[in-house]
Amino acid sequence: MFRLIEVIFLWMFEDERWRYKMLFQSLLLLVPVVGQVALLGWTMATYDSLVTGGQDLAHWGLHLRRGVRLLAIGVLYWLALGITYSGVRDLDALTGHTRQGGIAVQLYNDLALLLFALLLVPLVAATAERGLLGGLDLPHLARSIAAHPLRTAGATMVTLVAGCIALIGIALIIAAPFLLTYAAAVTASAAAWWSAPLRRPEREAGTASQPDGAMPAPFRPPHVEARATRPPRPPEA
Fold first, then answer.
1. In this predicted model, which residue has the larger pLDDT, 2 or 168?
2. Is there a contact between 5 and 154 (Cβ–Cβ < 8 Å)?
3. Are 220 and 228 in contact (CB under 8 A)?
4. Who contacts 178 (Cβ-Cβ below 8 Å, separation ≥6)?
5. 45 vs 39: CA distance, rounded Å
6. Contact present, 61 and 43 (Cβ < 8 Å)
7. Other CB atoms within 10 Å distance of the CB of residue 136
8. Which residues 6+ apart lie within 8 Å of 228 measured at CB?
9. What angle (nearest 5°) sits at the alpha carbon of residue 48, between those of residues 44 and 49?
């Protein structure tokens, strides 16, 4: 369990430049709209760094193109859930706001929030791997989630914890930019951890056709799995 916690929540502090990367990315959040989109793009860039064998946070920056893509997908899913919620509320109003209707509205609201938390990590992975269409491919997302239910449940719990961290930051106001950036890094690491079994067949298929060392390393934060070591340099004459 501690190894999993280290993989998801602590690995980023092994990056020697984590302070600078998270600080400057946090400062970008002070720019309305642009900063939030940049944080989404930075999340996907950090995911890419992890799944290709990197052990560092992505460099701070705007990353607007990728951020807009993830934002568009998130808004579409949020609207889909929100429109259904409005329909349930309207139906409750038509029936005279009965006790059963109120329970149904509250139950749907809770389930919709849980569903959004469940989808967040798979959406980050699918969008990073396959672009906008990948994030909208509901059948593929459903198959991926169903194939690894325990891993999906773990990723959902991490998403909820990251959301709580972000809410604490918003409540504290001053700490909001840094804690939001940290929550984004946690989400990226959860997405890389969640998608590891999905990428394994691709790595195994590519290993047969590529020489040793040509394939990217799996998700492997520092001190969780050993780094590849170079042979010692022979003494100079």
1. 168
2. no
3. no
4. 22, 23, 26, 169
5. 10
6. no
7. 17
8. 217
9. 115
CA distances from 215 to 7, 36, 52, 56 (A): 21, 33, 9, 18
Give which of 74, 11, 81, 17 is closest to 47, Cα–Cα: 11
Name the token pair of 63. Answer: 């990353």
Q: Which of 160, 56, 220, 170 is nearest to 152 (CA)?
A: 160
Cα gap 31→48, rounded to integer Å? 25
41 three-class SS: helix
CA distance 197 to 148: 8
* 125 contacts 189 by C-beta, under 8 angstroms: no
Is residue 80 scored above 90 in pLDDT?
A: no
Residue boundaries of the structural domains of the chain: 2-207
* Dihedral over alpha carbons 144, 147, 150, 152 (to 10 degrees): 10
Q: Hunting for tokens 């064998």 — which residue is that?
A: 53
Q: Which residues contact 83 (CB under 8 A, 6 or more apart)?
A: none
pLDDT at 106: 86
Note whether 7 and 224 are within 8 A (CB): yes
What per-residue confidence (pLDDT) applies to 217?
42
| Torsion angle (degrees, nearest 10) of CA 13, 160, 59, 225 | 50
DSSP state, residue 22: H
Nearest alpha-carbon partner for 83 in 54, 112, 46, 40: 112
